[in-house]
Amino acid sequence: MDPKLKEVSQLFDRFKASFLRNDFDNCSNLLSQLKVLLTGFRSLPPLFADTPNAVHELTIARDIYEHAVVLSVKIEDQDAFERDFFQLKPYYTDACNRLPPSPQEYPILGLNLLRLLVQNRIAEFHTELELLSSAALENPCIKHAVELEQSFMEGAYNRVLSARQTVPHDTYVYFMDLLAKTVRDEIAGCSEKAYDYLSIKDAKQMLLFSSDQELLEYIKEEHPEWEIKNDSVFFQKAKESAPCKEIPSLQLINQTLSYARELERIV
Amino acid sequence: MATTLVSSVGGMLAMLNEPHLSVKLHALSNLNNLVETFWPPLVDSLNYAVCIFQGNPETQGLKATSANINNDQFGHKFEISCKAPMKKGGEINKNK
């Protein structure tokens, strides 16, 4: 075996051992070293040189980046997730002719879709979805993210939250918890617009809190402009600070009628 | 390169954000070879890429992976890539 490849293999074995022990600091250090070593392989994207150990090098590199993606979920670093996923993606799209499919491909693609959903990057979510084959769309990991997005767009937040119980992969729990927060923020924004005030009891139920204390802490942190008095939450102050412009309906009607009149003259 | 084997430079651009310098420079080296094919997505990254060169005296000491990196060459090729479509655009405007 090539000495460089052997070094990478040994270091990767140490990484996997640390990963199993949940020693994430050591994992991050080893990962950094592995990435530096991988820069020495010419068989990896974008060069794809035909070296004697090309298949082995590509396989181990893909495995390393897949572990990097999962590690970023464990350490809850979304920026690292995005960096590692973009570096992993060529192994799925451009190297698929040189390598057998990875068993981790669909769970990781599903994780990425979930991340975009959590970050409310819906346009990119659909862009990524278009790149997938019809076979991929049938995979439970992908289908889960698609159904979540549909529920989210419909405003069926109860389905989004209950989906946490049926995650297809255990790495999804982190993003599902974040998604719950995204949903709560959406509901809070809608409540602010829809109501002048809500009782504490109703607000707690709407925002899916189990205790009054959690609700009060949330309001203090996220919505300090809300006012709490007489056992109710008042949104009036928030409305005052963000005045909505009134539609000049009379002016619009006059303009529309005059356009219609002008068009009739032309005919 | 006679043919382009990758469909995107997203991976290389992501490498530019890695904390380790040699990984950044590895990405730059590859981007240098791909600039004429993928210059549109590189536009937004140019300033940042140049900063990596200018801000790191360690560049001189790096070995094989950074041997081919040349700031002027990168900038020059990029400039050519930018000029070509701009000239063409100018001609189109004149025709109108």
Protein architecture, described:
The complex is a heterodimer of chains A (267) and B (96). Chain A is mainly α and 267 residues long. Chain A has 2 domains: 3-196, Alpha Horseshoe (Serine Threonine Protein Phosphatase 5, Tetratricopeptide repeat); 197-240, no CATH class. Chain A has helices at 3-20, 24-38, 54-74, 78-93, 105-118, 122-130, 134-137, 140-154, 157-162, 173-194, 200-206, 212-222, 236-241, 249-266, and strands spanning 197-199, 227-229, 232-234. The longest helix of chain A has 22 residues, at 173-194. Chain A is extended. Chain A starts with a helix and ends with a helix. The model of chain A has no long low-confidence stretch (mean pLDDT 85). Chain B has one domain (10-81). In chain B, 60% of the residues lie in helices and 0% in strands. Chain B is globular, with a radius of gyration of 15 Å. The interface between A and B is medium-sized, with 21 and 24 residues. Chain B: It comes from Glycine max (Soybean).
Set out the fold topology.
The complex is a heterodimer of chains A (267) and B (96).
Chain A: H1 3-20, H2 24-38, H3 54-74, H4 78-93, H5 105-118, H6 122-130, H7 134-137, H8 140-154, H9 157-162, H10 173-194, E1 197-199, H11 200-206, H12 212-222, E2 227-229, E3 232-234, H13 236-241, H14 249-266
Antiparallel strand pairs in A: 1-3, 2-3
Helix pairs in contact in A: 1-2, 1-3, 2-3, 3-4, 4-5, 5-6, 5-8, 5-10
Chain B: H1 10-15, H2 21-34, H3 39-42, H4 46-54, H5 71-95
**Number of H- or I-type helical stretches of chain B:** 5
Most extensive protein-chain contact, per-chain counts: A-B, 21 and 24 residues
Oligomer: heterodimer
Radius of gyration of chain B: 15 Å
Strands side by side in the biggest sheet of chain A: 1-3-2
The global form of chain B is globular
Low-confidence segments of chain A, ≥5 residues, pLDDT <50?
Answer: none
Our count of domains of chain A comes out at 2
- Report the β-strand fraction of chain A as a percent range: under 5%
Instruction: Please give the number of β-strands of chain B.
Output: 0
Average pLDDT metric of chain B:
60
Pfam family, one (chain B): RPN2_N
Protein name (chain B): 26S proteasome non-ATPase regulatory subunit 1/RPN2 N-terminal domain-containing protein
Organism (chain B): Glycine max (Soybean)
GO biological process, one term (chain A): proteasome-mediated ubiquitin-dependent protein catabolic process
